[in-house]
Amino acid sequence: MRTLLRGGRVVDPGSGFDGVADVLLDGGRVEATGPGLDAPDATEVDVTGLVVGPGFVDLHSHVHSIAGQRLQAMDGVTTALDLEAGLMPIDRAYAEAAAAGRPLHYGFSASWGAARAKVLAGIEPDANIDSGLAVLGNPQWQRSSSKQELAAWLSLLDGELAAGALGIGVLMGYAPATDPGEFLAVAHLAAMAGVPTYTHVRELVEVDPATPVDGSAEIAVAAGETGAAMHHCHVNSTSGHHIDRVLATLDTARREGSRVTVEAYPYGAGSTAVGAAFIDPERLRLKGLRPSSVVILETGERVRDEARLRRLRQEDPGAPCLLEFLDETDPRDRALLHRALAFPDAVVASDAMPVYWTDGRTESTGWPLPPGGSTHPRTAGTFAKTLRLMVRETGVWSWLEAFRRCAYLPSRLLDDVAPGARRKGHLGAGADADIVVLDPARITDTATYAEPTRPSAGVRYLYVAGVPVVSEGKLDPEALPGRPLRGEPR
Questions:
Q1: Which regions form coiled coils (predicted)?
Q2: Which 3-state string (H, E, C) describes 353-419?
């Protein structure tokens, strides 16, 4: 099937082109881009007045469902990858996604947390995000490893890389007291395998002076010592009020030659399992936060005191929750979020979370989604909110820079581990036909903490592998064209 997108403002961060042109899609590839293209056999779509660019590549999405990916499709995403946490075993993760079908392309890293849990706690991984959330509060896997244990879980990670994992996802923030030598060993493994790491860093020294090493300094040092490509996940949420110092640390490391990359999202609250190490009442106090900063996702309960928080952590450590770390109504806090996004070459990544319903479901194949779904609004609105803030309202980014941050740069992080990534994030001939067409005057988020599953507005068309998932602003519930993005097996 050939499709001709006629007369839009074409923005290609791969070539630097920004101007009125046509884009011709042939099957799953871009055939040509330029003015006045002639393709009488193609289905022509008039996109005059709209912005046309490569679909957004989300490096950090914990959405493993059709329902959640449809929310991300309405936000302009064409590829949704779970790289911070990853899944294990990787073969099972890919097989189950393929069997169920996906609206978007998908992929996974090798899970550091699951490998450690298997060796240190005897917990067999099942490639399931909900099981992974439950494990986060289990203290057995959070300790340091013996030499034999370290060798065992490194071997598991190496096996996952050989099977095509997209690098190593490291949830260091969930085991913050572990021996720094173990993190360095992971970096050495990544460097030898030629794959990136994606790290939720441990606590900052300003927050916990007793931390074995400052979390952001650790990733910079490890990258410098090993030469590994190391990605710092959601720098906004792990840095909080210390974002300026953290960004300066990372900037220095990059100037000295370290291969450190950064991501951010435009929200002042995060989402995780209530049993996470950093939601311990003592650690909240170190951050200047209170139990009332924690909201249980499925019930909406705002935790009233430390006793209640301890009880929740004990009874259901895997329960999803929100953690408010910045006040988006405060101009000073809002400026911190903007500085994280504006940091040179920082990419946009959502940290999208599963959608939960009160009956325990995390999947719905109907559209629109059934009422009552709970998640973080970043699942539905990260990219549209970022475009609203950084392009429409402040003009900090041009449209070319926006597509560079949302599509081109995240794709380039994966070039060495997954050759298929080289066809993403640009509109050159032969590129994947993953295209977003948006209304530059209307693109915005509509999801809120009270109504987190409201789709973004302004995405007029979305093509995944050349298949229209969104047409004239409406999602096609029959479209499941997503394909795996996978590393080369070794």
A1: none
A2: CCCECCCCCCCCCCCCCCCCCECCCHHHHHHHHHHHHHHHHCCCCCHHHHHHHHHHHHHHCCCCCCH
Please name the amino acid found at residue 109.
S
Residue 359 has a pLDDT of 84
Question: Does residue 44 carry a pLDDT above 90?
Answer: yes
Domain with 227 in it: 55-268+325-422
| Beta bridge pairs of residue 21 | 8
Residue 346 domain-assigned (yes or no) = yes
Beta bridge partners of residue 139, listed in sequence order: none
pLDDT class for 20, splitting at 50, 70, 90? very high
| Phi, psi angle pair for 360, to nearest 5° | 90, -5
- The CATH code of the domain that includes 409 is 3.20.20.140
- Largest Cα–Cα distance of the chain, in whole Å? 70
Residues shown for the chain: 490
Q: Residues 297, 287: contact at Cβ < 8 Å?
A: no
What's CA 425's distance to the chain center, in Å?
15
Whether the predicted model's global pTM rises above the 0.85 cut? yes
Distant-in-sequence, close-in-space partners of 235: CB < 8 Å, separation ≥ 6 = 216, 243, 246, 247, 250, 262, 263, 264, 340, 343, 346
End-to-end CA distance of the chain: give it in Å, rounded.
34
Rg (CA), the chain: 21
**φ and ψ of 15, to 5 deg:** -105, -15
Q: What letter does residue 419 receive in the DSSP assignment?
A: G
C-alpha distances (whole Å) from 149 to each of 41, 140, 158 are 61, 13, 14
Token reading at 263: 């991501």
Number of folded domains in the chain? Answer: 1
What per-residue string of b and e applies to 310-335 under the rule 16 or more CB within 10 Å gives b?
Answer: eebbeebbbbbbbbbbbeeeeeeebe
* 204 vs 68: CA distance, rounded Å: 32
Q: How far apart are CA 129 and CA 168, in angstroms?
A: 16
Query: What's at 179, amino acid-wise?
Result: D
The C-alpha atoms of residue 473 and residue 257 are separated, in whole angstroms, by 44
Looking at the domain assignment, is residue 446 inside a domain? no
Separation CA 258–CA 358 (nearest Å): 46
| Contact (CB, 8 A) for 194 and 417 | yes
- The two tokens of residue 397 are 């980014």
Among 170, 194, 339, smallest CA distance to 259 is for 194
Q: Over 80: is that where the pLDDT of 372 sits?
A: yes
Determine, yes or no, domain membership for 337. Answer: yes
| 3-class state of residue 199 by DSSP | strand
pLDDT the model gives residue 360: 81
**Would you say residue 439 lies in a domain?**
no
Give all strands of the β-sheet with 269-273 in edge-to-edge order.
Answer: 269-273, 320-324, 294-296
